[in-house]
Design brief:
By secondary structure, the chain is mostly helical. The chain is built from 4 helices and 2 strands; from the N terminus they run βααβαα. This is DNA gyrase/topoisomerase IV subunit B.
Amino acid sequence: MLNVKPKLRPPKKRKTRSDKKRDIRVPISFEEYNFVLYCSRSKKQSITQFCTELVREYIEKNTNFEEMPYDSSSEYMVHVKPNQLLYESMVNLSVSLNCRSMREATHRILANAIFYMQGGTHVESVQRKEFDEPGTELEITTWQDI
């Protein structure tokens, strides 16, 4: 077999690295991109390192991932490079969240993390008190009525 031309030899199968990372491109809005850019520069990290760390920390701390608007045609993209363990947990989350793709699931996790970093809160439900007695309805006034 030593005299066989290299093109005719069967290709060798290589082992995959145990620390292999996957690259997920995530579309985000302009405001989110500016926030990520500012935070990553203040921590002296790349945008990819910051977003990957943010996703990892948010998955470890939270179990509730609210639905966020997803625009796959956004011109602003960030990269998330999870290791194998983080990627497996993200796959499980994408199935439980009924996301159509890993990109959509990653966007949902990242958008929630950015939203909470900016000080946002989600309101689960607003209770409304109904009045049974006549004449106790609330009057809604606008600034034009004043």
